[in-house]
Predict the 3D structure of the following.
Amino acid sequence: MSIVVKNLSFTYGVGTAFAKKALDDINLTINDGDFVGIIGHTGSGKSTFIQHINGLIKPQEGSVEVFDISLTPAKKPKPDLRKLRSSVGMVFQYPEYQLFEETVYKDVAFGPKNLGLSAEEIEERVKEAIGLVGLDYDAIKDRAPFELSGGQKRRVAIAGIIAMRPKVLILDEPSAGLDPYGKEQILNLIVKLKEQCSPTIIVISHDIDEITRFASRIVVFNDSHVAYDVPMTELFEHQAELVEMGLDIPQAVKIAKALEQKGIVFDQPIVSLSDLYKAIVDRYNSIHVDKNAFDEEENH
Amino acid sequence: MRDISFGQYYPSESVIHRMDPRAKIIFSLLYMIGMFFIVSYTMYLVTFIFLMTVILIAKIPPKIVFRSIKAIVFILIFTAIINLLFYNEGKVLVEWWKIRITDAGINFSVKMIFRLTMLVMGTSLLTYTTTPTALTDAIESLLKPLSYIKVPVHDIAIIMSIALRFIPGLIEETDKIMMAQKARGASIDTGNFIQKVKAMLPVLIPLFVSAFRRADELADALDARCYNATDHRTKMKVLKYSGKDLVGAIVVVALFVGILLDKYLIGGSGLWVGIDRYIADGIRNLVG
């Protein structure tokens, strides 16, 4: 088990007129190799939650355990934040806004340098990270990050996190503000990163169709609580609750539901569009096979 | 960064909140001037009662108003000690090398603390009860006469309100960028001074970039809506004085006149000074 969160609560602006509870008694365990999608409204606490995992916010109540590092409200012992941040990589919303160096190389090297690695090791990691995000290392390494396109900047920023070789990668709204093509590419990149870089990935998104494409587990935040936490395949059973919380249900689920009302019921769970394609094709084939069998019988 | 208390507005439903912001600015100015004329403990007490009454009417928790003093605790202690040590008039109580502590010095220091504390509390009431937008509107209106001598009053007002509007956004942005760089292992609050300044670069550069980007976007948005800073602009909310401003004016002017009377007429004789001397003697006995 890589991340264990117990009874975590957090309030912004304690003791002021603007005090606002962001997390209320959160319990969650994330296992090695999980591909978690977190979904919820703005202000439901999801961003606050992931900031806890990286030690960016100190817990006010409860505890967060990441690998063998434990974060608690207590002042002592001080957690090893450097080690924590090297094992948990965090890609914030609009990560391109954090670029600051003169060249792409230097910017990607910022993280590894902070880890205190040797120059050779840094170079190797930067090369690997830029390659992983699908950019041409030799063509881009000496360019200024500010002259790149939006999508390229975002890739460079993600490369800056990957170069730290985190065991857990957290992405907050990774496709926000991109055009459909850029979105598609970033989503494919995340799937690739899961295979080649970080075994455990947590993605925050407000677009449920995006999450159904890759996540194997879904956590829904609502009103500072974890509303539910289920394997992706069970999402179909929870659509009424999703609607009640004012969240969208996946398109594939909507279509499957409509077909069900017309009397077409699928045996397998349908969550993503690819599930739906497969189910429809299977159904079509099975009908045709039956028909062929009937025809053959007649011929006899 | 989130806890920064610059011009913080405390939302609540009260007569003070609804008063005309121009009136509140004028009252605050009068109050500030008045503070420098107070000489007696009695008058400090009267002003303090006035202050607490306003806080009560404004429905602001006194705790929050007292918190505004926190920022000046250092200045308070510093001025009090300097005054205590180098005030030369009055009866000498303790003498050591060039330092002389006198009864008048103690008196002066205590009054100085009262004055500064109440000054800050009083003026912070203005920002607690008035939104930044209302404040800039009021300043624009109060500076109007200057436009006759070609001072671009409206431009100044719009620049002020935009600047104020940007502050919360920039604070939030700083917060986010700091977190993002910390997540990349940047150590922002450790090391010596030069290291700290260097460590701020990864925060400052993106912050400037984003400030310029925001300014650009805002300028475009203003342009797209044909914004033009001419004199012919009208306001959605026209400021208008009302009865409560008159009541406020009467109370504040009464306080101001009281302070002046206390200093120039009653000062030096009568019962009030008796009370004052009693307190001063009390302090002297306490020390001596």
